[in-house]
Specification:
homodimer; about 110 residues; alpha+beta; Arc Repressor Mutant, subunit A; two-stranded antiparallel sheet; DNA-binding
Chain lengths: ~110, ~110
DNA sequence: ATCTTTCCCATAGGTAGACTACTGGAAAGG
DNA sequence: CCTTTCCAGTAGTCTACCTATGGGAAAGAT
C-alpha cells in the first residue's frame, strides 16, 4: 500500500537515535526497533542498513564488536561513540530546521 | 553555515505546491518562491530545478508554454495539470505520514 | 530426522535525484 | 560599455537507497 522507505538522508539519524536509546545493539535489532517505533511505517532494508553501518564505522560514529545475541546467535553489536552522539545532535537539529522550512512552503500562513 | 539543500524526495512536492499557490510560473519564480517562503533555509539550485521540471513534464504533472516575464524576458511558464494536483495531494499525505513516523522514532513517548 | 522459519551478516549492481560546473543569452542599470 | 539580474538548459559526479543474492547457525515444526 503506502511507501515504507526511509527518506534519503534520514537513515543515519534513525540508526544513531536507535543506538542512543537501545545501547549496544546488532543490526537486526536496530531494524526491528525502527520498524516497531514507527508503527511499521518505516522498514529498514538489510541492503540499506548494513552498508550504512559500515560507513558509520568508517566515519567513527559507531564502534562494533562481535558477541552473542539474546537468541544465542553470532551478532555484531554496535555502540555510539562520542562523535556519533555529536553527529546525532547535529542531524536532529538540521532535520527539524529543514522540516519546519518545508512546512512553511507547503502550508503558507 | 547550515545546509540549504533540498532533502531528496521533496523537490517535486515543493515545486508542485509552489505552482498550486502561484498559478502558472517560470522556473526562476518557483525557485524564488521556495527560497522566500522557507526564509532562505531552502535553496533550489538551477541544476536541480530545471531537470526536475523536465521530468515533471514527462510525467505529465505540469504543462509548459513560452511567454514573457514581468521583466520582459523570455520565460517558460509551467502550470499544474490535474495529474499534477493529484500527485501533490498524494505526496503531501505520504510526507506527513512518514515525518510523523520519524518523529516517533526520534522522540519515543 | 529433516524441514521451515527466524535470526543475523554482508556484497554487488541498479537507479533516482540531488549537486557542481558550465554554456548561453537578453534586459536593465551603472 | 560593463556588470548585474533574470531566465533556461545540459553534462557529469556523487550519495545513498533499493533489489537481488548468498551465506550460515539456532529453534521450532512435522
Amino acid at each position: 500500500m503506502g511507501k515504507m522507505e526511509i527518506p534519503p538522508g534520514t537513515l543515519y539519524m534513525l540508526v544513531l537515535r536507535s543506538l542512543d536509546e537501545l545501547g549496544p545493539m546488532h543490526g537486526y535489532g536496530i531494524a526491528q526497533y525502527i520498524e516497531r517505533m514507527s508503527s511499521a511505517v518505516l522498514a529498514v532494508e538489510e541492503g540499506s542498513l548494513y552498508p550504512a553501518l559500515q560507513r558509520m564505522l568508517i566515519k567513527g560514529w559507531v564502534k562494533a564488536e562481535w558477541g552473542l545475541s539474546e537468541n544465542n546467535r553470532r551478532a555484531r553489536y554496535y555502540r555510539l561513540t562520542a562523535a556519533g552522539r555529536r553527529q546525532l545532535t547535529e542531524e536532529i537539529a538540521d532535520f527539524q530546521r529543514v522540516m519546519e522550512a518545508i512546512v512553511r512552503v507547503i502550508q503558507p500562513a
